[in-house]
Amino acid sequence: MRYVYFTKLLQSLDVPGLIAFCKEVGLDGADLAVRPGFPVTPENVATELPKAAKSFQDAGLTIGLVTGPTNVIDPDSPAAKSLFDACGKAGVPAIKLGYFAYKEKFDASVTDARTRLAGFAKLAAKTGVRACYHTHSGNYLGNNCACLRLLLQDLDPHHVGAFVDTGHTAINGGPFRMEADMVRPWLSLIAIKDMRWEKGKNSWEAHVVPVGDGIVRWNEVAQGLKDAKFSGTISLHGEYETKDLAERKRLAKQELEALKKLFS
To answer: pTM value?
Structure first.
C-alpha cells in the first residue's frame, strides 16, 4: 500500500514545503489538491503539475492522485479535459472527481450521473488516468457504497474507480467489510477519516477527528481491506483543525503509524 496526504489543509505550503512535510511524516507522497489558491491550480495545471510531479519523483515520492475542484462533474468541460490531459502527461494515475447532487428525483439523478461517468470513462481511456468517485455523506449520490455501485455498474474498472472514505461510510453506510465488498471490482482508493457526532445548536453534526478518536471501527476497516485484497493508495485526509503545522505533522505521524499497524 502507498500512503499519501491530502494537501487541502496544507494550502500555505509550496511544492518544496509539501515534499518536506511528506518526507518528515514518512509518507509515500501526496494526494495533491489542484484548486484555486494552491501551488497547482486549474489554470496553471498544464505547466505546473508536470513540474510538481518531477519534484516529487526526484525526492523519492509520488503524487498518488489529484483532487480537483468539487465542481468537476462534466467530462466535456474544458476544465475536466485540461485536468486529465495534465495528469496523463505528468504520470499521475488518478483523479478524484467532483460530486453529483441528489436533485429530488433519484432515478433521473442517477441516470444523469451515470451518463457523465461514462463520459469520464472515455476521457480516462484517452489519457490513461483513472476517474475516481468519492463516497461523501449528505445530499450526494454515492454517499455510501450501495449507491456508488449503482453509479459504477457496467463501467470499466480500469477507467472509473471507487474512492471509499472510512469516515463518510461510517456516517451513511453499513459495516465497512460489506461496503468495500459492494464496490470491490472498482475499489481504487481509500480515504482515511474518523468521525465524531457532536450536538450543535439545532442538530447533531458529524465532525472529522484524528484516527482513533471517532466512531470508525478500524478493525472492521482492516478486515474489509484484507478481504478485498486491497493494495492500492490510501489518502490521509486530515480534515480536522490543528493549532499549527507542527501539530499537524505530529498527528499525521500518529495516524500513519496506527494505519500501518492495522493494515499490515
So the answer is: 0.96
